[in-house]
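Interim report to the steering committee. The following record documents the input for NADH:ubiquinone reductase (non-electrogenic) (173 residues).
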Amino acid sequence: MPPQIVVLGAGYAGTAAIRSLENELEHPDLVWVSKEPHHFVLHEAHRCIRDPSICDKLTIPIEDIKSDHTRFVRGTVTGIETEARDVIIDGDHTIGYDYLIIAIGSQTAFFGIEGLEAHALTLKSPDDARSIHDQITNAAKDATRDEPAQIVIGGLVSRAFKPRVRSLRGATK
Ligand SMILES: Cc1cc2nc3c(=O)[nH]c(=O)nc-3n(C[C@H](O)[C@H](O)[C@H](O)COP(=O)(O)OP(=O)(O)OC[C@H]3O[C@@H](n4cnc5c(N)ncnc54)[C@H](O)[C@@H]3O)c2cc1C
C-alpha cells in the first residue's frame, strides 16, 4: 500500500503539488481537499472586476485538473490532529494521512487599522471580484460632481480599477 498523501487547498501551491505528485509517483494515493471545487486564477482576478463575465474563464473545475485516481473532498479544514495524523473537515469528519501538504493560502491582513476590516473589500475569490465590481458601479451611480464616489485603493489591483473608474466618470451626473 502506498502512503496516503493529503493535499489541502486548490490555489497555486495545492494545484502544483497535486500535479507534481501525480507526475512523479507511480501509483500515488492522493486525497485533495479544498473549500471550493475549482482552482481560481487569482492573479488575474482584477480582470473580473472590470468585466465579471471573465470570472468563469478564470475558474477551472478540479475535475479538469486532477487525474481520475486522485480523490477530491470538498470541505473546509477546521483542524489538524498531528498526533493522530488526522485532518478535521467542517468540524465533523476526519481524513487520515501519512503525509500532509498544507497549502491553504493566507488571510488578508488589516494591521489593526481602525475601521479597515469593517469597510474594506478583500480579493480572494470570484465572488469577491464580483462584489468589488458591483460596489464600484453602484457608488458611481450615486455619485455627483459635488459629491463624488470615494474609493481608497492601493497595490497591484489599483491598475485594474483605473479604466473601470474612468469609464464610469463620464456617466456620473
Ligand atoms: C489580485 C491579485 C493579483 C496577484 N498577482 C500576482 C502576480 O502577478 N504574481 C505573483 O507571483 N503573485 C500574485 N498574487 C499573489 C498570488 O496570487 C498568491 O501568492 C498565491 O495565490 C498564493 O498561492 P497559495 O496556493 O499559497 O494560496 P491561494 O491561492 O490563496 O489558495 C488557497 C487555497 O486554499 C483553499 N482554502 C483556504 N482555506 C481553506 C480551508 N480552511 N479549508 C479548505 N480549503 C481552504 C482556498 O479555497 C484556495 O483553493 C496576486 C494576488 C492577488 C489577490
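The beta strands are 4-8, 29-34, 38-40, 59-61, 71-74, 77-81, 86-89, 93-96, 99-102. The committee is asked to note this result when reviewing the revised timeline.
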